[in-house]
Design brief:
Number of helices: 17
Structural class: alpha/beta
Number of domains: 2
Radius of gyration: 24 Å
Largest sheet: 10 strands, mixed
Strand content: 15-25%
Distance between the termini: 29 Å
Bound molecules: 6-O-phosphono-beta-D-glucopyranose
């Protein structure tokens, strides 16, 4: 992926950003500690950060640079993907600075602005800075207004580039997303806005495009003539952890269906882009998102669930309502299954079953393309009893790879045919390990490559899918499932009504 104007020779050279600063708002939070700081260390360790690179942490803590550095040290050491090298860390951390302040604190933002000015000379960053919003969505407008007030979002004024990275959830529904898009595009130049969806940073997700468009084998059968249905599953064994405040007001549909899952669906459903130019890829994804249809009867074509106490991987798990910080009468869903469609010639009549859930038996994200049965089977029916649909399964995580399932003769004197699997696993096929999603995406922001970032129109189209679901569900209670089960029974029944079943993921 990347700029198509770069020559093949260029592309193999590492992409090193221009000298710049990364400003992290909410630097003491979960995302920053678990993902961003380790990603920055891994990039430094791979030699991909520019000279003079500086991290400015901003948060409401009465801290100095030393406190920040020790938090960052713990976080990087714990979350690093690449081997630990103390000298790399020391060099990186010597350029860390902490700015204490709340988002309504004008003085703190003035200090941030003057610090960036000083760094222009001192670190030679020429005014280049990316602002990462690792903060609650409610605080986005406040911080955007501060960046506007101080002129920090202004490219011309800074003398370099100014970019903003906005974490999901991007809005709470179509209306709030549109208002936020308007605000962020007013404060920053639209091409400097990076809406992050970390699923697009995963190698296996980018491989969907390689699999489809670098081969001649799959594309001819990638349509309603051969595909019976598609199942997209994102199952997590974990619960909501310490995120009750956010999660209870969002629920599974807003948390991951609106973004990660619909992006996966768009990549599976899209037409071939004319090139790998970011705009071309986005244009094709957008067409799919626009063509998504909801079930005619949402009550029948979707299921919401909430986990009860149970056992996951041999450990007792409390129910959602017993989780710390969740109101006792909460009806928020921790599971969603929905039957979507794509209204275009390629996909007419093919159901896309999408399910997401917390406290499932295990962590697995996969996309399964289930092909139609052969139109004629010249076998004794007893010999093909164990033959299912041919399936192409893209394993997003874990055990990253692609599995092709098809029928094969069982050795012996009869013509018995049974499903077998042909398995491609990243771990075996490649010696290189995959970069973490955030590692890839932070680097993309710093080099200014927007290929893997959804744009405003995509975000808005995704809410167009979610809003009617939320409306139809309003005032209804979720179905229950035990922690450690594959969702509520109603979800199996939804598929059974049309003679289908969920794949055993
Ligand atoms: C986040 C969601 O976007 O993705 C979380 O907010 C979820 O609820 C997480 O746990 C899953 O990410 P991954 O990369 O572990 O599949």
């Amino acid at each position: 992926m990347g700029n198509p104007l770069r020559t093949a020779q260029d592309r193999r050279l590492p992409r090193i950003p221009e000298p710049c600063a990364l400003v992290i708002f909410g630097v003491t939070g979960d995302l920053s500690r678990k993902k961003l700081i380790p990603a920055v260390y891994d990039l430094a360790n791979r030699g991909l950060l520019p000279p003079g690179f500086v991290v400015l942490g901003f948060a409401r803590r009465d801290w100095g640079d030393g406190d920040f550095e020790s938090l960052a040290y713990e976080a990087a050491k714990k979350g690093a993907r690449t081997p630990w090298r103390e000298d790399v860390w020391q060099r990186l951390a010597s350029q860390f600075q902490f700015i204490p302040g709340s988002f309504d604190d004008d003085t703190a933002f003035d200090t941030l602005a003057s610090t960036l000015d000083e760094l222009r000379e001192r670190n030679g960053i020429a005014g280049n800075a990316a602002f990462y919003f690792s903060i609650p969505p409610a605080a986005f407008p406040l911080v955007l207004n501060q960046l506007n007030r101080t002129g920090m979002a202004d490219n011309a004024k800074s003398g370099g580039w100014r970019r903003v990275v906005v974490e999901k959830p991007f809005g709470n529904d179509l209306q709030t997303a549109m208002a936020l898009n308007k605000l962020v595009d007013e404060v920053f130049t639209p091409q400097d806005v990076f809406r992050i969806d970390h699923y697009l940073g995963k190698e296996t997700v980018q491989n969907i495009l390689a699999l489809r468009f670098a081969n001649s084998l799959f594309e001819p059968v990638w349509n309603s003539k051969y595909v019976d249905s598609v199942q997209i599953t994102m199952a997590e064994d974990v619960g909501i952890g310490t995120r009750a405040a956010f999660y209870d007001s969002a629920g599974a549909a807003r948390d991951v269906l609106q973004n990660h899952l619909l992006q996966l669906l768009a990549l599976v459903g899209m037409e071939e882009p004319t090139s790998f130019d970011p705009n071309e890829i986005r244009a094709e994804k957008l067409k799919v998102l626009k063509a998504i249809s909801l079930p005619q009867n949402i009550a029948e074509g979707s299921v919401r669930g909430q986990y009860l106490q149970g056992w996951v991987a041999g450990e007792r798990a409390v129910g959602y309502l017993e989780e710390k910080g969740v109101p006792a009468e909460s009806t928020t869903e921790t599971y969603v299954a929905v039957r979507l469609g794509i209204q275009n010639r390629r996909w007419a009549g093919v159901p896309f079953f999408v399910r997401v859930g917390k406290r499932m038996p295990r962590r697995v994200t996969e996309i399964a393309i289930l092909f139609k049965r052969a139109p004629h089977l010249p076998f004794d029916p007893a010999d093909v009893e164990m033959l299912g649909n041919n399936q192409l399964v893209i394993r997003v995580q874990p055990d990253e790879g692609v599995v092709l399932k098809f029928g094969s003769k069982v050795p012996g004197t009869t013509m018995e045919v049974r499903d077998i699997a042909m398995d491609f696993q990243y771990g075996e096929a490649f010696t290189e390990s995959s970069p973490e999603a955030y590692e890839r995406l932070v680097l993309d922001v710093l080099v200014g490559d927007r290929t893997l970032f959804p744009d405003a129109a995509e975000v808005e189209q995704s809410w167009r899918v979610i809003d009617p679901l939320e409306e139809a569900w309003a005032g209804t209670g979720p179905e229950r499932y035990r922690a450690g089960e594959w969702g509520p029974r109603a979800s199996d029944e939804m598929l059974a009504r049309e003679g289908r079943a969920w794949r055993r993921a």
